[in-house]
Amino acid sequence: MNPKNIYFDSGSDCCIKNFIHLFYKNKHNIISTKPSFPMYKVYSEFYNMNIQYIGYKKNLDMDLNKLVKKINNKTRLVILANPNSPLGDFKDKKEINSFCKILNKKKIPLLLDEAYIDFAPHSCLSLLKNNPNLFILRTFSKSWGAAGIRLGYIVGNQEVIKKLYNIQLTYPISNITLKFGNYLLKNSHINKSYSSNTILARNNLCEILKKNNYDVLNSHTNSIHMHEKNNNNSRTTRLLLDAKFAFKYGSKLTGTMVKIPGDNRTNWIRLSVGPNLDKNKSLLKIIKKNKDK
Ligand SMILES: Cc1ncc(COP(=O)(O)O)c(C=O)c1O
C-alpha cells in the first residue's frame, strides 16, 4: 500500500469528522443507516448538513437499493459501517462492489467504516483498486484493544487523501501513539488470535444461549443481543448486574431502550464478547438458570 493513499488521524472518530468536513455543503445530505454509529449524525449536523437514514427490514436486512433511491442532487456522501454496529450485519464484497459502482456513476463517495472488520468474514480493501469513490475507515480501538491511543485511518484515492491532510490539525497524533501503533502492527499476531478467539467465543455463546431458551441475535462484531424467550429479561439483567458484568440493557427505570428492528421488546441485553467468554463459569450459571425456569 502506498502511504499516499492513507490518512491517519486521532481515532476513526476524527477521520469521520474531517471526511465530512471535506465533502460538506451547506444544507446538503449525507445518507447512512439507522441504527449506526451516532457520531455520523453529530458531525453531519455540526457542518449544517442533514443526515438521512435507511431503516432495516424486519429480517434485519439492509436494502441498499432503498438507499440508492434516496440519492438526489443534494446528496454529498454515503456512510456505511460494515459490519454495522450495534446490529452486526455484514455486506460481502460483491454487494459493496456493485453498490460502489452505482454511487460512482452518481459521483457520490462511499465512506465504508470497517471499525469491526476483524470480527467479520472479510474486508473490502481489495475493492479500492477499481473504485475511486470508495474510502475505507479503520481504527485501532476495537480488535486491537487500543482505544486509548486514539489512532484511526482512511484508505482511498490520493487526491482526496491529500485534501484531508490539508484540513488536518497541525499536530494531530502524538509520538507515543505512533510508537504504540507501530508496536501493534509489528505484533499483529496478538490481534489475529484475539479476533479469532472472540469469533469462536461469540458463535459458541450464541449456541449456548439458544439451547437455554434465549432469543439471540448473533453478529459480525464483538457484541451480541440476547433476550429471555419467555420473559422480560429482568431476571437475567439482575443476575448479570449482581455478578458485575458490564453490558448494555434496556431499563424502564432509566428510560434506556435496547431494541432490534422488527421486535417490540425494548429491553434486550447487548453483551460484548471476548476470548473465552463462552467458558466463563458465572455467565454459564446465569444462562443455564433460564432453562431451569
Ligand atoms: C462503527 C464505529 N465507527 C467508529 C467508531 C469510533 O471509534 P474510534 O474513534 O475510537 O476509532 C466507533 C466507536 O464506537 C464505532 O462503533
Strand order of the largest sheet: 1-7-6-5-4-2-3
Structural class: alpha/beta
Mean pLDDT level: 96
Order of helices and strands: EHEHEHEHEEEHHHEEHEEH
Number of helices: 9
The helical percent reads 25-40%
* Distance, first to last CA: 55 Å
**Largest beta-sheet details:** 7 strands, mixed
Describe the structure.
The chain has 293 residues and is of the alpha/beta class. It is 37% helix and 17% strand. The relative contact order is 0.13. The mean pLDDT is 96. Pyridoxal-5'-phosphate is lined by residues 11-13, 37, 81, 85, 113, 115, 139, 141, 147, 152. Residues 11-13, 37, 81, 85, 113, 115, 139, 141, 147, 152 line the site of pyridoxal-5'-phosphate.
List the helices and strands and how they pair.
Layout: E1 6-9, H1 11-23, E2 29-33, H2 39-46, E3 50-54, H3 64-70, E4 75-81, H4 93-105, E5 110-113, E6 134-139, E7 152-155, H5 158-167, H6 175-186, H7 188-211, E8 214-217, E9 223-228, H8 234-242, E10 248-249, E11 269-272, H9 281-292
Helix pairs in contact: 1-2
The chain binds pyridoxal-5'-phosphate.
TL;DR of this structure?
The chain has 293 residues and is α/β, with parallel strands linked by helices. It has helices at residues 11-23, 39-46, 64-70, 93-105, 158-167, 175-186, 188-211, 234-242, 281-292, and strands at 6-9, 29-33, 50-54, 75-81, 110-113, 134-139, 152-155, 214-217, 223-228, 248-249, 269-272.
